Amino acid sequence: MQKTLCAALVASLMTSAAYAGEVAGYLYTTLNGEKTNQIISFERHDDGTLGKQTAYSTGSLGGANRAAGGDAAGDFDSQGAVQIIDDYLLAVNAGGNTISVFSIDRSDGSLTRKENVGSGGTRPVSIGYYPKKSGGTDYWVVIGNQWNNPNVQKGGAGEGAIEMYPDAAFHADGGGHEAVLDDRNIQLFSFDSTTGKLSAETMLDSYSGTNGGPTTVAFNHDGTKLAVSTWGIAHFATGTPTHEKPSRVYVYDFDQASGTVGSPRFFEEDGVAGSIGFSWDNSTDTLYVSNFNLVPEKRDHSLTVLADDGRQVTKVKHHGTGRGADIDEACWTITSRDGSKLYVSSFGGNLISEFDIRAPGQVTQVGEGAATVYALRKQGTPAGDTKDMYLSEDGRFMYVLGAYQTFTLSKFDVSDSGSLSFSMEYKVDAATETEPGAYNFLGLTGFDK
Hints:
Blueprint: H1 2-21, E1 23-30, E2 36-45, E3 50-61, E4 82-85, E5 88-93, E6 98-105, E7 110-118, E8 124-131, E9 138-145, E10 151-153, E11 163-165, H2 168-171, E12 180-192, E13 197-208, E14 214-219, E15 225-230, E16 234-236, E17 249-255, E18 260-267, E19 272-280, E20 286-294, E21 303-308, E22 313-319, E23 330-335, E24 341-346, E25 351-359, E26 362-365, E27 374-376, E28 386-391, E29 397-402, E30 408-414, E31 420-427, E32 442-448
Parallel strand pairs: 10-16
Antiparallel strand pairs: 1-2, 1-32, 2-3, 4-5, 5-6, 6-7, 8-9, 9-12, 10-11, 12-13, 14-15, 15-17, 17-18, 19-20, 20-21, 21-22, 23-24, 24-25, 25-26, 25-27, 28-29, 29-30, 30-31
């Protein structure tokens, strides 16, 4: 009896171990260091744990630069920097001003680089795409070229001398922030997913430095609209952000037949800068936008819900994230595949806030008020590290980048109700340097086998 029980237990453990070890899919991010950029792939097991890591050179430069931006050590942000289109992976090379195209072997997740294509601007950071026709293999691809992220730091009483980046001349009256630069743009491409050929078409629009360059570009649910969030001018490390200028969220009508945009409109609000990630609603023209640089009176604007009616973009509602009035710096968004959940990750607070989407535009923070629900990363994570998120296709696991200081990937388990619980952290092996800003991981995506 005892031998039978022991044998059954051993067999059960062996079966569980084998099941946990099965590769269920793969994750991908970009290292985005100060040298040649790399795509890092991770095996994802059925139980959500991560296995073998593999690095693939893009043959082009990452965009990290620790010597830039003062205390920010070159940090810049975006969403959608790496995308999977059919059997290809597209990734930005922010320092090389190129887009890398890799073919994916879906049996083992391996990548083969096909080509690098000029991004049509400076510092590409985000990729949006939509099929040219339903079920087809030709796609419209839009690249957001950010150019730079001008900002101001310090300057108040006891905060140290004011610092201006890229320089004081840029921020002066008549300076660079008033100029529209062709390199700060959204660029249209065609992509053929049967051959992996990415072909430049035309520049769709360019932007002034006052309201910043693109941070995220994405098509709506039916491909008839294109949205672009911009950086604005942020004023950090001060209680009185006198040099802050608002970011904008643009919406364009998109003609799928010709690949042209029209009827540009935008939303902006004084005191709200640094609009980084956004997600379209799954079925309507509602946008959920994260904002990280807020004046004190608008700390409850970390998330803004916007609606586009084809003529104007208006605010429906706003929400705080994390611990209410704390400066947690909300920056990235993701919705569940059924459209019922919205998650917002915060760079400063290293947390993910959870929202219910009751109906398009009707967003409620879970446990709003004293019982607000949010998930923290590993205890001891230094402030200013958390970036992009990815939900497994089965909705059971979320993965979050420790992109700027820890150089890690965190795993969260997702309950049936959608709540998150931190479970494990994985060090990215290719990130061999340890100083903050040595890398600035951009983008996180994946697929299930």
